[in-house]
Design brief:
The protein is mainly alpha-helical. Helices cover 76% and strands 0% of the residues. Keywords: Membrane, Transmembrane, Transmembrane helix.
């Protein structure tokens, strides 16, 4: 448990920063919604005049963004991206930093198995992404209620946060696997964050070009859609199952790779 406490303490400042950034995005988004509402401009017609590429990049599809649920669903794309980067970076750094910080000396000199070093780190990562998710949920309900006659759309937001947590878990597992396979922290974080951006760019490309629809299965950003969650109240069981199974595989590979690699002191 000492490893767990150390990881939680080491990451508390960064967690606060990430949470504040997420809260700010939600606050700014709802303020933008209020601005459109007060202007009495036909927002749907306004955005319809924009090029399709711009609409895709900003996550604006066929939803009615004059409604709070529709406008909020647009921001789910940004929630996913921010949450993915946070989770993958935590996993990559937490696992790969053993040699950077010379913690490998502890593994060699103390009667501690490598499993006992890794699982508290992953538990700390799980707690971190859960806190990030809860903060996102609370901020969402609070700011939505401010602009929706007190109705925070708790049921819809809860479903959205469940999808977000599954995505966070996937990227935490992905980052930890990179951290175990790549010994250097910089290489691990660069590879993990690069893959996140690759997934994101691929999801945009799939939206832009119909011929690339078959590639949607290769980017987790296409497994859940904000409009489907917020408007239709639907969470794809198949998408959730695939991401959870792949996450489990990545976690297993993390333990296997870390257990087999040589640790330099």
């Amino acid at each position: 448990m000492n490893v767990f406490k150390k990881e939680m303490k080491a990451n508390i400042k960064s967690l606060i920063i990430w949470c504040c950034a997420q809260v700010f995005i939600i606050f700014a988004g709802m303020m933008k919604y209020q601005g459109f509402a007060d202007s009495q401009v036909d927002v749907n017609a306004l955005f319809a005049a924009f090029p399709e590429e711009i609409m895709v990049v900003f996550g604006i599809g066929s939803v009615d963004i004059t409604k709070v649920a529709g406008f909020y669903s647009v921001f789910f794309l940004y929630f996913m991206l921010l949450a993915a980067v946070h989770a993958v970076m935590f996993g990559a750094v937490a696992v790969s930093k053993e040699e950077r910080d010379h913690c490998a000396d502890f593994v060699y000199t103390k009667p501690v198995r490598r499993f006992q070093v890794i699982w508290p780190k992953l538990l700390a990562g799980l707690i971190n992404i859960l806190i990030f998710n809860i903060v996102t949920f609370c901020a969402s309900v609070f700011f939505i209620a401010q602009h929706n006659d007190g109705n925070g759309l708790i049921d819809k937001v809860s479903l959205t946060m469940l999808a977000l947590f599954i995505l966070q878990l996937f990227f935490l597992a992905l980052g930890s696997m990179f951290g175990a396979v790549l010994k250097n922290t910089k290489r691990a974080t660069a590879a993990a964050s690069g893959l996140v951006m690759g997934f994101f760019i691929l999801s945009v490309a799939v939206d832009l070009y119909d011929k690339l629809d078959f590639l949607a299965i290769f980017t987790p950003f296409k497994y859940f859609e904000g409009a489907t969650l917020m408007i239709n109240d639907q969470l794809s069981f198949n998408s959730a199952a695939i991401l959870l199974v792949v996450s489990l595989v990545f976690f297993v590979l993390t333990f296997v790779a870390f257990n087999r690699r040589d640790l330099s002191t």
